[in-house]
């Protein structure tokens, strides 16, 4: 694939993944729960299992195409895996743009898990509604992500990949800041001379309406994270190591993303026990400041223009020119 189309290709991939997630969380899961009645949870899991089985059957067709050339026993693969992972780690550490892209992708995965962990507390502590309504209240996040992914190829022709990621992270930080301060914002709006009354619109409270308004830009900004960082790895990784690079990226991103999630619940409980704002509010402010720091690092350390392709300068040992 031509290098100039890599961002568009990764954007299309992320668009399909985000659309599928939005379809499942906002439409398919509520319908399965509703139609299943008392057995709604079982119906949802059966539906998910059937979809995974269908995906596995479709993947078999892809596997058959790869049978033959290059096929080998799985035992040498597992035996060589530690050495191959060490080689890839060394390669990434020697190349700053690739290491930065790995950090950005790990941050993206961490934000997803943190968001999923904090939403129930946010619904209960800030909005005062049942967490079951989260799919409806935060539906603008998915819609904003889809719009952002469609807008991304246009923006990629005008900004460098580091600038795209930094802009997305700054947008996420601002959105988190607004969501964290939604309660005082609602109080200020209610105290205005002519306050808004969103209760007349779909029965929404002022807090719920503000949350939905801020959730849209959050999703839009998030769309700017993955595709540019994935493109950097595509461009920088030697062709013979590209598969191992993305395997390591997936392993590290999922492992490192779990670490903050293990402590975020306890931290929120500790902050709740202290006098002051709700713990979830303080945690969201901390996340916003951390994301801002990574955005600044992306601007300082990232490339300002697409890297030139120099295949001759990349040797079989995985050293970048």
What is the makeup of the main sheet?
Answer: none
State the CATH superfamily name: MFS general substrate transporter like domains
State the domain count: 1
**CATH structural fold name:** Growth Hormone, Chain: A
> How many DSSP-defined strands?
0
Give the number of helices.
Answer: 12
Distance between the termini: 21 Å
CATH architecture: Up-down Bundle
State mean pLDDT (0 to 100 scale): 76
C-alpha Rg, in Å?
22 Å
Keywords:
12 helices, 321 residues, 76% helix, Growth Hormone, Chain: A, mainly alpha
Tell me what the structure shows.
There is one protein chain. The chain is 76% helix and 0% strand. By secondary structure, the chain is mainly alpha-helical. The C terminus is likely disordered. It contains twelve helices and no strands.
How is this fold's topology laid out?
Layout: H1 6-36, H2 40-65, H3 74-94, H4 96-127, H5 134-137, H6 139-156, H7 161-180, H8 182-190, H9 206-222, H10 226-236, H11 242-273, H12 279-301
Provide a brief overview of the structure.
By secondary structure, the chain is an all-alpha fold. The protein has helices spanning 6-36, 40-65, 74-94, 96-127, 134-137, 139-156, 161-180, 182-190, 206-222, 226-236, 242-273, 279-301.
């Amino acid at each position: 694939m031509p290098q100039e189309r890599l961002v568009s290709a990764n954007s299309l991939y992320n668009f399909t993944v985000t659309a599928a997630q939005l379809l499942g969380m906002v439409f398919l899961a509520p319908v399965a729960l509703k139609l299943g009645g008392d057995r709604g949870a079982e119906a949802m899991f059966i539906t998910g299992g059937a979809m995974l089985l269908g995906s596995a059957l479709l993947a078999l067709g892809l596997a058959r195409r790869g049978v033959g050339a290059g096929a080998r026993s799985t035992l040498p693969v597992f035996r060589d895996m530690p050495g191959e992972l060490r080689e890839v780690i060394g390669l990434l550490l020697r190349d700053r743009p690739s290491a930065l892209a790995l950090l950005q992708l790990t941050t993206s995965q961490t934000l997803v898990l943190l968001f999923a962990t904090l939403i129930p507390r946010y619904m209960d502590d800030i909005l005062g509604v049942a967490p079951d309504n989260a799919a409806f209240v935060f539906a603008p996040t998915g819609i904003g992500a889809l719009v952002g992914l469609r807008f991304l190829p246009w923006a990629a022709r005008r900004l460098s990949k580091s600038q795209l990621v930094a802009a997305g992270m700054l947008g996420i930080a601002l959105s988190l800041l607004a969501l964290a301060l939604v309660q005082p914002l609602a109080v200020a709006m209610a105290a205005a001379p002519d306050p808004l009354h969103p209760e007349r619109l779909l029965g929404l409270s002022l807090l719920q309406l503000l949350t939905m308004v801020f959730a849209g830009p959050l999703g839009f900004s998030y769309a700017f994270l993955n595709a540019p960082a994935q493109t950097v790895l595509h461009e920088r990784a030697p062709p013979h190591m590209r598969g191992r690079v993305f395997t390591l990226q997936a392993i590290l991103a999922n492992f490192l993303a779990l670490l903050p999630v293990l402590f975020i619940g306890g931290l929120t409980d500790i902050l709740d026990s202290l006098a002051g704002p709700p713990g979830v509010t303080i945690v969201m402010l901390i996340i916003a400041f951390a994301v801002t720091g990574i955005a600044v690092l992306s601007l300082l350390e990232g490339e300002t223009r697409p890297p030139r392709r120099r295949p001759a300068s990349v040797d079989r040992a995985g050293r970048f020119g």
